[in-house]
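Bit of a strange request maybe. I'm writing a small parser for structure token strings and I need a real example to test against, not something I typed by hand. Could someone generate the tokens for this chain?
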Amino acid sequence: MKLIHSGRLKKLHKFLYIVFTKRERNEELKVHKVFKISLDISEKDWDDVEGQVQDAIIFLKKYQMELQTLFKTHKVSNAYLDFPIYSRLQGDIANQNDQLPSELILLAAKLSLGIEMAIYSKDAFNRDVEVE
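Reply from user aminoacidic:
Good idea to test on real output. This should exercise your parser:
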């Protein structure tokens, strides 16, 4: 996407994870109807929720203007922060609560960003899956 490489949005380029434009085709040969941009804003481990949240707050504060420009100049149908976290439910632990600070919620709301917490079991990627 040329927009990322020019002007004020160039600052976001180092965080890009995946980008495609409306005119590019995905693996199913369908033309995308919207722009998709995924930014990798934290390198914290999935068991460091607080660290991921602090990284997101710092990122949103630092790049608020660039993100506003990006959302104004591109058709955005769904934008959200995704926090991948490991489940702590094991043994005698029956409940897991993770609270997001109001500062993060306010910063996300200013950009109309939703927040998703994707919870994975610690061994989810280590299991052998049998294919029939």
